[in-house]
Amino acid sequence: MSTFVFPESIKSRPTYGKLQNKFGKAYLFIADAEGAEAIIELASKDPALMQKAHVVYIPKDTGDQFLKDLNNLNINQLYIGPSYSAAQSRIIQAFEQASMGLQVCLSGTEGLIGQALRDAMAAGIPHTSIQTEHRGSVSRRMQCVHCKGITEDVISDPFVCSHCGLNLFVRDHYSRRLAAFQGVCIDAEDPGNIPDSVELYK
Amino acid sequence: MTIQFKDETFRDDYTFKNSEWAVKRFPFPFHEDSYMYSVNMEQHKGGPEGSIYEKRFDVDEHYISEMRDRSEVLKDDPLRCQSLPHMTLAGWDLLELIMISKSEDYPDLFELHRNGNNWRWINKPMQIDHSFTFLDDATLPYGPMEYITRQTQGDFVILDQRESNLWMDAGMVTTQADWSLDFDIGMNFFEWHAPVPKAHEMGIFTRALKFLLNIQQGAPARRLNWTMTVNPLLDTSPENYHKWGVQKGTLNPKNIGEKQYLRVELQTFFRLPRSNALVFPIRCYLASFDDLMTVPKWGRRLHRVIRDLPEELATYKGFIDNRPMMLDYLSQYDDGKPTSDGIWPDLQTEPARD
């Protein structure tokens, strides 16, 4: 099962729901990895919905695990891409061309959901109108508060900033505008004193 | 009195010093011998003569040096000043509020001459004499918020009001107690306060927000907040934490009196007229433990407050490791005598009655 119950946290930390088949004139699904399962589940409840759907899917390390099922859903427009940044310009175009009645549904990792939410907000779609469902890895998209560089798919705490090399601890403080959690130097007060890295939520 | 502006630094060699005048008017933040969060708001309509509450935007002996430090911070990291696109009008509102307040409150230091939208602003301490067109961005060297806050002590955050919430949509933040404008910009009131322990559960933020949403034009409010900083470092930003964090380890029983600073924020809140935004100036005052111990009441009280502060708060405020050393120092100044109510030094009633 690819679902995870996040423990209660601070108020800036995003929370996620479950995709519902709300009525819409059109549907835009953006998903990565196990996020495909959320789409497949929704389609099993309401197969007709997929004929009004545009799906942008980034398999990441799930490879072709979900591709056959997705291909069998009779999705009106299905795009499968290698990464969020590769897909980003078409995602932004889809948001900008959205008309009233479009349902936006995001599923998968926090990094995917956060980035799509950020791009939707930039196109003027209120984040509160967007459905989200977390699936798969609990890895995070982290911003280094020091150098501002983003490290994708962080799964352990502390971790090394992929830009400046500082050892950062993983905070729950989250910026929707940056689509990232905050990483802060862990050994600032006692340089070199870096605890062993542990997997998030383990 | 005429203010004697100092030439001093808040970094590297740390030549910052308070005069005796500055110590006596220091906003000691504890009105009783203990501390817990509260919505400690009051109206900001002046205060005792010479106190930091007297003027709308207090100017003190550190003005010129603080402005120099701000420009250094901005050179290193221009993201400390940001304004989302819809906040420009609020920036003009702020510029107007500060220019009018300072020229009225300090006529010997600042002048504002207005002829319709043709304005002339004279800032004598900073040797600025500038004519511009009000509400015309092209006539200023920076955006209006940045222009005026490069000339005004304290951090500034401008909060947009919508959906019964406040949104941190613009700010000039170079003297902050370890929070990042670049990270928090765009967040609402609950989101940017998310990392503060305990206060959410206590309902503090719900009540504070309710109060702030109702602040009216011409009726500003204020409160004090506080934390601890080693060395008189204004820029305790998370951005530079990997550089300044190590300074906490340089305290020892010999130097703690001069190196450990109580950092107090005078937070004020003004409604802005055109944008209906709320401006939130956060003015930082620093006083070393040695400075504070010259006021016997503050010595007694600071010891009791720091001793009894819940561990969670001492951790959040970043001094849990140094607390035992602080208490060794502070206890020398606590003779057990009672203290008078309120924050003022009350030197004339010393020694306190048993």
Secondary structure: elements and pairs:
The complex is a heterodimer of chains A (202) and B (354).
Chain A: E1 26-32, H1 35-45, E2 53-58, H2 67-71, E3 77-80, H3 84-96, E4 102-108, H4 110-122, E5 131-134, E6 140-144, E7 150-154, E8 156-157, E9 159-160, E10 167-175, E11 180-185, E12 198-199
Parallel strand pairs in A: 1-2, 1-4, 2-3, 4-5, 6-11
Antiparallel strand pairs in A: 6-7, 8-12, 9-10, 10-11
Helix pairs in contact in A: 3-4
Chain B: H1 20-24, E1 42-43, H2 63-76, E2 81-83, H3 88-105, E3 110-115, E4 118-123, E5 128-133, H4 144-149, E6 155-162, E7 165-172, H5 181-184, H6 189-192, H7 204-213, E8 221-230, H8 241-244, H9 256-259, E9 260-271, E10 278-288, H10 289-292, H11 296-308, H12 311-316, H13 323-331
Antiparallel strand pairs in B: 1-8, 2-7, 3-4, 4-5, 6-7, 6-10, 8-9, 9-10
Question: What's this, in brief?
Answer:
Chain A folds into two domains: 109 residues, Nucleotide-binding domain of ferredoxin-NADP reductase (FNR) module (Rossmann fold); 60 residues, no CATH class.
